[in-house]
Automatic annotation (TrEMBL):
<feature type="binding site" description="in other chain">
    <location>
        <position position="223"/>
    </location>
    <ligand>
        <name>IMP</name>
    </ligand>
</feature>
<feature type="active site" description="Proton donor">
    <location>
        <position position="41"/>
    </location>
</feature>
<keyword id="KW-0436">Ligase</keyword>
<dbReference type="InterPro" id="IPR033128">
    <property type="entry name" value="Adenylosuccin_syn_Lys_AS"/>
</dbReference>
<dbReference type="InterPro" id="IPR042111">
    <property type="entry name" value="Adenylosuccinate_synth_dom3"/>
</dbReference>
<feature type="binding site">
    <location>
        <position position="304"/>
    </location>
    <ligand>
        <name>GTP</name>
    </ligand>
</feature>
<keyword id="KW-0658">Purine biosynthesis</keyword>
<feature type="active site">
    <location>
        <position position="140"/>
    </location>
</feature>
<comment type="similarity">
    <text>Belongs to the adenylosuccinate synthetase family.</text>
</comment>
<feature type="binding site" description="in other chain">
    <location>
        <position position="302"/>
    </location>
    <ligand>
        <name>IMP</name>
    </ligand>
</feature>
<keyword id="KW-0342">GTP-binding</keyword>
<feature type="binding site">
    <location>
        <begin position="12"/>
        <end position="18"/>
    </location>
    <ligand>
        <name>GTP</name>
    </ligand>
</feature>
<feature type="binding site">
    <location>
        <position position="40"/>
    </location>
    <ligand>
        <name>Mg(2+)</name>
    </ligand>
</feature>
<feature type="binding site">
    <location>
        <begin position="298"/>
        <end position="304"/>
    </location>
    <ligand>
        <name>substrate</name>
    </ligand>
</feature>
<feature type="binding site" description="in other chain">
    <location>
        <position position="238"/>
    </location>
    <ligand>
        <name>IMP</name>
    </ligand>
</feature>
<keyword id="KW-0963">Cytoplasm</keyword>
<dbReference type="InterPro" id="IPR018220">
    <property type="entry name" value="Adenylosuccin_syn_GTP-bd"/>
</dbReference>
Length: 429
């Protein structure tokens, strides 16, 4: 049986949470391998809605869940999320949740710096969630991060704090902020350590044992390929690699760990925050997509920008993300449109492009080339087989397959986990 990685094939918010939850029931382990609590996954199970940011979606089902070393961890956000789930009746114990000892921590001054920079950036604002994700990754790469394992050795943290404060105090001074209160920081870490440390493990070892037993491992990505630090719409991207290849390094497994890569894409396109968006519809149609699709961010509540499906971007995401098959979500949002459109290319001056250019200025200038198709008046909501879909909806899906050069292996027709049409089982390969 193959291991499966689930990643976003657009700008995030594609409905990964439901798909991971649907797959997690048949997995032996679920692993988050990058990002932080800027991720937002909404699960609807038996009429109950669960909102997750940091924890792997498998936790709701009781599937052993791992936060891998590629994640940056806000320990206070972790505690709040665990407590919120417990109030909803979800058991979170060291048997069901394991956190890599080597995760870098997001600390209060990371959040401060994130907000200070964004406020000072003027027209250069990226639209971050202000949760400290980027600054924490910077400290990790700069070799000055405090990690989960350090919580067990707080009395020995002096040299690392020297490196950390030498960097951050200079930055804070530039914003007329006071230096980091080292004693206050240690006191906060000492208080939260008792909560975090019971979950800390050498998860690479847990995963190696699972692999040796032939267990099914489900890798859960955050955000989407178009927000990848290398392959996304830079600089309007996240601070980590969101492609499936990151699952190996972000979990402590080798490059052969990932088998089937399932890319999640909406039947239209959305984006949160700043950055180019070729098919954005700033009109009644875009508003209709947003209202029908309930397009508000799980983490921030921010309204998402909406537009037609962009096959150029998804084809590119499938290529660089290593995607084997696409899970197409929210097809029901398109019910009732007389016509639906798909972007098949771009015009940039006198050029016609079949890919998204790298430079931000060119990205902002491209004009989408559309292909229109008749819509459908019948409802697709809740369909669980091809026979329940209108013929024109099936034609729309098949045309998407042709354009993105990647098969649609699963279709989601509502937020409910069982309202899913399975074409090809990712775990069967």
């Amino acid at each position: 049986m193959a291991n499966v990685a689930v990643i976003g094939a657009q700008w995030g918010d594609e409905g990964k949470g439901k798909i991971v939850d649907w797959l997690a029931e048949r997995a032996d382990m679920v692993v988050r391998f990058q990002g932080g609590h800027n991720a937002g996954h909404t699960l609807v199970v038996g009429g109950t809605t669960y909102k997750l940011s940091l924890l792997p979606s498998g936790i709701v089902r009781g599937t052993p869940s791992i936060v891998g070393n590629g994640v940056v961890l806000d320990p206070w956000a972790l505690k709040a999320e665990v407590e919120r789930l417990r109030e909803q009746g979800v058991s979170v114990t060291p048997d069901t949740l394991m956190i890599a000892e080597t995760c870098a921590l997001i600390l209060p001054f990371h959040r401060d710096l994130d907000g200070l920079r964004e406020d000072a950036s003027g027209a250069g604002k990226i639209g971050t969630t202000r949760r400290g994700i980027g600054p924490a990754y910077e400290d990790k790469v700069g070799r000055r991060a405090i990690r989960v394992c350090d919580l067990a050795h707080l009395d020995d943290l002096g040299p690392q704090l020297d490196r950390l404060t030498a960097h951050h105090d200079a930055l804070r001074a530039g914003f007329n902020e006071p230096a980091i209160d080292r004693e206050g920081l240690i006191a906060e870490l000492r208080e939260i350590a008792d909560f975090v440390l019971p979950y800390a493990q050498p998860v690479w070892r847990v995963l190696a044992q699972a692999k040796a037993k032939g267990q099914r491992i489900l890798f859960e990505g955050a955000q989407g390929v178009l927000l990848d630090i290398d392959h996304g719409t830079y600089p309007f991207v996240t601070s980590s690699n969101t492609i499936a290849g990151t699952a190996a390094g972000g979990s402590g497994m080798g490059p052969g760990a990932v088998g089937f890569v399932l890319g999640i894409a909406k039947a239209y396109t959305t984006r949160v925050g700043s950055g180019p968006f070729p098919t954005e519809l700033e009109n009644e149609t875009g508003e209709r997509l947003g209202v029908r699709g309930h397009e508000f961010g799980t983490v921030t509540g921010r309204k998402r920008r909406c537009g037609w499906f962009d096959s150029v971007l998804v084809r590119q995401a499938a290529a660089v993300g290593g995607i084997t098959g696409i899970a197409l979500t929210k097809i029901d949002v398109l019910d009732g449109f007389k016509e639906v459109a798909i972007c098949t290319g771009y015009r940039l001056g006198d050029q016609v492009l079949d890919y998204y250019p790298a430079h931000a200025a060119d990205q902002a200038k491209v004009e989408p080339i559309y292909e229109t198709m008749p819509g459908w008046s019948e409802s697709t909501a809740g369909a669980r087989s091809w026979a329940e879909l209108p013929a024109q909806a099936i034609k729309y899906i098949r045309r998407i397959e042709e354009l993105i050069q990647c098969p649609v292996t699963l279709v989601s027709t509502s937020p409910e986990r069982d309202d899913t049409i399975l074409v090809r089982d990712p775990f069967a390969d």
